[in-house]
Structure formats: C-alpha cells, structure tokens
Competence protein ComFC
Amino acid sequence: MECGRPLEDLPSEYKANDICMDCVRWINEENYRPFKNRSLHVYDDEMKEILAQFKFRGDAELVHIFHRSFRELFQKHFTSVSSVIAVPLSREREYERGFNQAELLAACLPVKISYPSLRRRETEKQSKKTRKERLSGSNPFYFQGEDMFHDQHILLVDDVYTTGITVRQIGSLLYDRGAREVSSLTLCRS
C-alpha cells in the first residue's frame, strides 16, 4: 500500500525504509492487497477548519476551491482507471448533511462517476472514533446488488485518508467481485 503520506517531515520512528508505519502494518496483514492513495492536502489545522465548514456546517460550495487542483491530481496519477466510485455515506448521515462530500469531490473529475449498489451501514462518525476503534470495527460497507468489477481498476474518492481502513474495507469487497486494482484519491491525508 502506498498511502501518499509525505515522509520528509515524519520522525524516523514513524517510518521504515521510506514507508510509513501505517503501510508497514497493512503490508504485514494476512490478507494484504496493495492499494495506492494520493491526497491533495495534508490534514493540518487549516484543512480541518475548511473541512469542518464543508462537511459539518453544510457549505457544499467550498468544493469549488478544490476543483482544478483535485482534477489535476487525478490526471497526474489515475487516468487509466476503469471506474470511479465516491465513498458512500449512510442514508442517515447523507440526510443529516444534505449531500455526500465524496460525491461532490468525484464530480470535479473529468470522468463519469459509477454508482454501484455499494452502501454503508449507519455507524458512529469516523471523526469521533479513536485510531484503534477505526481499525478494529466491522466492515460497514456492503453491496445491495450483484455488481461485478472483473479486471477493473477502481478509484475510490473520499475526503480524508486517515488510517486506510475505508479503502481496505471497500477494496476487499471490490477484489472479491473481481477488481484487478483498487486505488483512492482523497482531498486530505492525515
């Protein structure tokens, strides 16, 4: 897994051989499958505030400030993908917000977005969970239909890459349905 975390400023105890410790942990997992992530920004205090306004205060128009740079990042790393899927919110969460921020980000890309029957069960907000809780929880994602992804390279779009668990949870479902490769493009990498 190559998470795209900037390693230059990362203390040596958080990386090994130019790989962050998150990726080292994933590589050592029994059912490891490689994933590639690219993020536009580091999730710093400024981006936390912008994302809070975007997601939690309902300012969906903020997506426009990322439009060009998000598209350029996609064109630099992911032009050969077969399908682009926005990470779904639970029905309750999407109703609460009035939009899915991942869908708004995916709409910035110069490709058609796929809308498979991928769904998410209602769970506690990821932002409220500890790292351990995020990594140990059951997979909230599932397919409602019989979608198949034979030999496809699937790109997942989301707002924040924190531990990599979302990509791995959805990715395992996609690989089980025939995907050749799963990658992710996110606005921020924490």
